[in-house]
Design brief:
Layout: H1 2-21, H2 47-53, E1 65-72, H3 88-105, E2 107-114, H4 121-134, E3 141-145, H5 146-154, H6 176-181, H7 197-201, E4 204-209, H8 210-215, H9 221-227, H10 232-239, E5 258-263, H11 270-273, E6 279-281, E7 287-289, H12 294-309, E8 313-316, H13 319-327, E9 331-337, E10 351-354, E11 375-378, H14 386-417, H15 421-432, H16 438-441, H17 443-446, H18 451-457, H19 463-486
Parallel strand pairs: 1-2, 1-3, 5-8, 5-9
Antiparallel strand pairs: 3-11, 4-9, 4-10, 6-7
């Protein structure tokens, strides 16, 4: 009875909480292509990863049983190959993956979809939560929107993935750093990996136009990245003087040329890229707010200066427009996502791919995140057969490495879209630097909003006042999160 009352209260609180955050997320749609982590450590790359990869799942025969997943209609192509997507080879690989799992283990995969983009967030959240309240066991697993599925986590809807059989979150087919970041008190309720196409498509990166780079005397950008000297200040230095009022009308519009273009929501990645964690973990394992630091203030001031005072940047919410500007040679650098390379495959001018810069040379590594509508895998507490569900999830993720992930990275992104071997190498670097910030993942629970995007778009550097006015909300959200991971 106590649990039911808590779940009901969570449901009543949900609408108001999300409404308070609605200004903090925008929907990411890839352009038409013609069709500092917290938590418990996971094993390091190397021997443990190789050992896990060489240890196959046991032989199983599920006797033709159904395993049903709830997925988002807008991203149904992650599991249903006939539902679109940016690349035919990736779609074929999804079909191959599904068939391999069904035939090898004599199981039938069923995917039920319901709308679940930002505009339909309540619809998807309630579909999961109402199923749990009803105890109907309708879904064996769920593939949900990162930014909103965390609401279901704090409502008690999901099982701890670390306690399920077969799922090996320490393996390479799951996002190892992501698992580390999202594991607290030996509990991990959501995870992503090769099983979800969005995790592959929505990795942040920067594109650069080689012809413009040469014309402006830029150094070898690949060597700059390799040296660790690809930083915020270096980016600002390299774009200085590269913009041009092409039509001579005295104002900089989408008819002109810029040093750097970006979607407004692409500014949010700097929270991870510049290593300003919202939440960190104490020695006793409990999470705490760690965002309000001098480093964060410096990052906010630097971003606002770059995008508002340099005279070299252009920001738009129209991603198709941004892709068009880059294709037309109107931008030296473009912040973007891996999946957007498909929209530039027939671009005449040559381009390269590199990571977002580090904040400064003192930052140890390049850090990459995903757009926050990437899919996360979860298992409802009402799953009727957790053994079968966990087995199938792990099988799908493992099979995705040789099918879906290989088709996207090796065949499409590296071979078809990347223009040189160095870009292909950078793709590996970016993918290897994928991380998550616990606080950003739980942004709708913390009422975090769109922060860095807001600072830039409002030309506001007063982080201290912004944080002080919201600290109570952040703490309230964090208490909700602590209860989920420790009660």
């Amino acid at each position: 009875m106590k649990r039911c009352l808590c779940l009901l209260l969570s449901a009543l609180m949900l609408s108001g909480c999300l409404a308070a955050c609605s200004g903090g997320k925008t929907e990411e749609t890839l352009p038409d292509a013609g069709s500092a982590a917290v938590g418990e450590p996971v094993p390091e790359d190397g021997e443990a990863e190789t050992e896990a990869a060489s240890d196959p799942l046991p032989d199983r025969d599920f006797g033709g049983a159904d395993v049903t997943a709830l997925i988002r209609t807008e991203w149904a192509y992650e599991f249903l190959p006939d539902e679109g997507g940016s690349d035919a080879m990736v779609s074929e690989a999804i079909a191959e993956r599904n068939n391999r799992v069904e035939e090898k283990y004599n199981v039938r995969l069923k995917f039920e979809d319901t709308r679940g983009d930002w505009g339909n967030k309540d619809n998807f959240i309630n579909a999961v939560h109402n199923s749990v309240l009803a105890g109907d066991g309708a879904y064996d697993f769920v593939s949900g929107y990162q930014a909103t599925i965390v609401q279901n986590v704090t409502m008690g809807d999901f099982l701890n993935l670390l306690e399920l059989p077969y799922i090996d979150l320490s393996s390479a087919w799951w996002t190892r750093k992501g698992v580390d970041a999202l594991t607290v008190n030996n509990r991990c309720f959501i995870a992503t990996g090769d099983i979800t196409v969005t995790m592959l498509e929505y990795l942040y990166c920067m594109y650069w136009q080689k012809e413009l780079a040469a014309a402006n005397g830029l150094p070898d950008l690949y060597a700059l990245v390799d040296s660790g000297k690809w930083t915020h200040d270096k980016l600002k230095e390299l774009i200085a003087g590269t913009s041009l009022d092409v039509n001579g009308d005295g104002s900089m519009t989408d008819a002109d040329r810029f040093g750097l273009i970006a979607g407004g929501d692409y500014l949010r990645q700097y929270l991870v890229a510049y290593d300003t964690p919202v939440v960190s973990v104490k020695a006793d394992g409990t999470p705490y707010l760690s965002w309000n630091t001098e480093h964060t203030v410096s990052v906010v001031e630097s971003l606002v200066s770059l995008y508002n005072n340099s005279g070299e940047t252009f920001i738009s919410s129209d991603k198709t427009l941004l892709t068009g500007l880059f294709r037309n040679g109107q931008a030296l650098f473009a912040a973007g996502l891996f999946g957007q390379a498909a929209a530039m495959r027939d671009m005449e001018a040559d381009f390269g791919i590199i990571p977002y810069p580090k904040f400064d040379e003192a930052q140890a590594d390049y850090l990459t995140s995903t757009n926050n509508n990437v899919s996360m895998i979860c298992v409802p507490v009402t799953c009727g057969d957790t053994d079968a569900a966990a087995f199938v999830i792990e099988a799908l993720c493992r099979e995705s490495t040789d099918t879906v992930s290989a088709a996207f990275y090796d065949t499409a992104l590296k071979s078809k879209y990347a223009r040189d071997d160095d870009s292909a190498r950078m793709i590996d670097l970016i993918r290897g630097s994928l991380s998550f910030d616990f606080g950003w993942v739980y942004s709708t629970v913390l009422n975090l909003g769109n922060s860095y995007q807001m600072f830039v778009e409002e030309n506001n550097t007063d982080f201290a006042s912004y944080y002080a006015s919201r600290e109570n909300e952040y703490n309230a959200g964090l208490e909700n999160i602590r209860a989920t991971y420790f009660d």
